[in-house]
Amino acid sequence: KVPIGFSREELYRLVESLCIHEKASKLYSCLHDLCKQFVQQQVRSLGGESINKGIGGKLEVGAVAVAVTQQDEKILMKASSIWQDHRKQMNAIRSIFLYLDRSYVVSHPRLTSLKGMGLSLLRTTLTSQHPEVLRDIVRAVLSYIKRDRSRKDKVTADTVLLKSVLDMLSHLEIYVQEFEGVFLKATKEFYAYEGQRFAMVKGVPAYMKHISERLIEENKRVEDYLAESTRKPLLKALEEALIASHVDTIVRRGVDELVEKYATEDLARMYHLLSRVDALASLKKYFLDHLKVAGRNLVMMGDESQVLKDKQPGERLNPHEIKLLEQEEKKVIPELLMYKKRLDKLVHDAFENDQNFTYALKQGFEYFVGGADYRVAELLSRHVDALLRGAKARTLTTEPQVNEIFNPLLTLFGFVQSKDVFKGFYQKELATRLLTGKSASRNVEKIMLQKLRALCGAAFTKHMESMFGDISLSEDLAREFHRSGSSSSVAHQSGTQLSIDFSVRVLTEGSWPKSDDNGSMQSISLNLPQEIKDSQASFEAFYAKRHKNRKLVWQYPRCEALITAEFPICGKKELKVNAFQAVVLAQMSNKTEAMNFAALSSATGLDSKNLQESLYSLLDSKIILKAGSHHRKILPTDTFVANGGFKTHLRVLKLNRERPKIRRRMERKQVQEQVLADRGSVLDATIVRIMKTMKTMAHKDLMADVVKLIKFTCTAQDIKKQIDALLRREYIERDENNPEIYNYKA
């Protein structure tokens, strides 16, 4: 830095001359000694900037902290200045002594190049001769970074200054040895304390946001002044302190809240952070646990047993509670569909469609749907029935439109293990829609059947497809029957003419669900009006001509009638009734005298049970009245009379045979009985097929193989029951020497 009277070129020529005259060795030695002396002097001057220097008198703690901060900055500035000067001066020296460096030094491998000599001298002076100075530099850097992390003031760190100092350590090859280790240790301690302080105080979303900000800050520190080699261990130290040590707290306190709120952004942040410490298994576990609980609550909405738990033994639900439960029950499937749609989006957006979380979602639905299998199967069937009856189904003219509505339902159906239960209810409801003409769209019905066939196989939809065939054939028969003139109106021979519209559906036995409690297709004998009998006889004759050796059995429980009735006060009304109600009304029409229960049973041909159900609905509608009695229960001694004072503002009255709740209970009982019978047959066939192949099997092995092959849930007791039945029927037998082994009997 001191001006001299020679140019660099003159100095270079002088060095070249000395080397040519064999003075290179002495020249290198003198240069080395002078550089060493100068470097030591510079390092000693840096040591003079001690932390204790300049702090005198009595100061408060805060003042000491400010003084320490200022002293750290002075040390770093001085170290940076020395380093920058050192580099410039060594570059100047090398340019003057370049000939020495390229001729003499290169030819002596034990000697260090001039550039390396300068670095070696500075490194040796700092590490061996004045290690306290190096410690002060490192401490000042750590203090500076800690202050920046703590945000105790709004002044950001002087990144240029820090980069200069840390570049010096890197060039001296003491960065890792002297700085990185203590820096990472300080980082762990800082973030371990911060994690303990913030994890329980801050909410999980705020804590995760704080971690994300810290990660950005530390990455920026690497970009600004730390060595690239520090990035990985630095981020690992942060992740262990702020994430890995608090995984349980994060997922335990955060998953339920965030999934309930569908907080996609926060869950995505949680997924990203936990993936950094290989803790996604914990997130998946808590996510699945949440699904199981929340899903279970959804499927049990409107369940009567849940309300009865809070009541005294024997206490029943009041009408208001029943109505609320029915309303809640109708919401179960729509809520499940919405829940599935939201969770699919959440897994896609927050968990990046991770297959582990996709599988957890599947597991969750299988768990809570499987836990209420019968209930979900029934409610799903009723929901589909409501859609296929509704006006919206009429607007679905293309398959993509149908897919949009029904594919989510079929996805939910996929989680139902007891698909035979769904089939039982769906077949009953399909029969009602087809026979009453309440299906909104025949095309949509067929598309739905195609989808069920694709999911469950041809055997699943065989009978339902046959039902459609029966309806199509019946419509063709009806057109032929009316064109033949055999029926349109039937004149009563006794004088009064009654105009009737007679419509018949011919159903194939075995394809349609049973219509009565006993599950039989036997005809019930009814005393019908003569014109109905004449129409029946006419149709039977017409059908016999086209189909030889076929027998028609009239299914009165399925029949409906639309009767035009005239009342003294309110005039003409239309009554929608079933066949049983119709024959009761026919017997009481135009009669003012009362009829007792026995007389009505004899006149209509109805048994006591069916007559009671018909009378209850007619009494509820006030079309007939009890004579001399006001209690609702029907007794064999009661008498009944037509209500001459009946009045209503409605034009069409629909008289239900039974209340919806009672009807659903009966249908549920019938479906369950049919399902159990069908499952028994499947178990029998499975056991026989296994035994026929294996010939001899131990009891536990047979049980295990049966469970693997069947597609519905059943208990070990169910399988054992069928094994016992096959033993009685001698399809299999117990081994004489070991009763736990079965042998197949050909």
Structure description:
The protein is mostly helical and about 750 residues long. It is about 65% helix and about 5% strand. The chain contains 28 helices and nine strands. The protein has helices at about 10-20, 25-45, 60-95, 100-105, 115-130, 130-150, 160-170, 175-200, 205-225, 230-240, 245-260, 265-275, 280-300, 305-310, 320-350, 355-370, 375-390, 400-415, 420-435, 440-455, 460-485, 530-545, 580-590, 595-605, 610-620, 660-695, 700-710, 715-730; strands at about 560-565, 570-580, 595, 625, 640, 650-655, 695-700, 730-735, 740-745. It has a three-stranded mixed β-sheet with strand order 1-2-6. A three-stranded antiparallel β-sheet has the order 3-5-4. A three-stranded antiparallel β-sheet has the order 7-9-8. Helix 2 (about 25-45) crosses helix 5 (about 115-130). The radius of gyration is 47 Å and the shape is elongated. About 25% of the residues are buried. Residues about 50-70 and about 490-500 have low confidence and may be disordered.
Write the layout of secondary structure elements.
Layout: H1 8-20, H2 24-47, H3 61-96, H4 98-105, H5 114-129, H6 131-150, H7 159-171, H8 175-198, H9 204-224, H10 231-242, H11 247-260, H12 264-275, H13 280-299, H14 304-308, H15 319-350, H16 355-370, H17 373-389, H18 399-414, H19 419-436, H20 442-456, H21 458-483, H22 530-546, E1 560-567, E2 571-578, H23 579-588, E3 595-596, H24 597-604, H25 608-620, E4 624-626, E5 639-642, E6 652-654, H26 660-694, E7 696-698, H27 699-709, H28 716-728, E8 732-734, E9 741-744
Parallel strand pairs: 2-6
Antiparallel strand pairs: 1-2, 3-5, 4-5, 7-9, 8-9
Helix pairs in contact: 1-4, 2-3, 2-5, 3-6, 3-7, 5-6, 6-8, 7-8, 8-10, 9-10, 9-12, 11-12, 11-13, 13-16, 15-17, 17-19, 18-20, 19-21, 19-26, 20-21, 26-27, 26-28
